[in-house]
Amino acid sequence: MTSVSEILSYDKSAAQDDYYEVLGCDQTSTVEQISAEFKVRALKYHPDKNSGDKKAEETFQKLNEAKETLCDPEKRATYDKWKNSGVAVSYKTWLSNKEHFQQSMHWAQMNTKDRMLPEGGEGASSSMASRRASEGGVNLGANKTHVYPKAREVKH
C-alpha cells in the first residue's frame, strides 16, 4: 500500500510519468501519431547507437513503456484515467492499487444521473431545497433561521 509520505511528496507534473510528454504528443494523438513519434525518438536513444550511455538506455526503456501503454486502447484508457484523476501517486502505484483508488474516488464524484425520484416528479420538490447542497441547493444545516414549530402543550 502507498504511504502517506509518498503521496505528499509526489510531483505529478514531473515528466517522468507523462507518457505523452515522453513521446512528444498529447491526449488527442492517434495511435499512428504516437507510433511515428516513438520511431523518431527510438532511433535517437537506441542502445545500439548509444552503447554504454545509461541515460539513453533509461530513456529508450521509458519510450517503449510509453508506446506500449498508449498504443493499447485498454492500457491507454487506464493511463488517461490516472492522468486525469488528480491523485498524487505514480502511474505504477496507481496500477497496483487502482481498484482501491477507483472505489475511493467513486464517493468524490458528484453523481446525479440515477436518482430514485427525478426532480419535479411525484413526491419530489422542484425547488432548490430538494437538491443537495453540493449541487448548489439549499443547505438547511447552514441556515440557522429555519424554525421548527413548537411542540403542543399537553394538558393534564
UniProtKB/TrEMBL annotation:
Q: Which domain of life is it from?
A: Eukaryota
Q: Name one GO cellular component term.
A: cytoplasm
Segments for region (Disordered)? 115-156
Q: Which residues form a coiled coil?
A: none
Q: The J domain covers which part of the protein? A: 18-83
Q: Which Gene3D superfamilies match?
A: DnaJ domain
Q: Where is the composition biased (Low complexity)?
A: 124-137
Keywords noted in UniProt: Chaperone
Taken from the record, one Pfam family name reads: DnaJ
Write down what this protein is called. Answer: J domain-containing protein
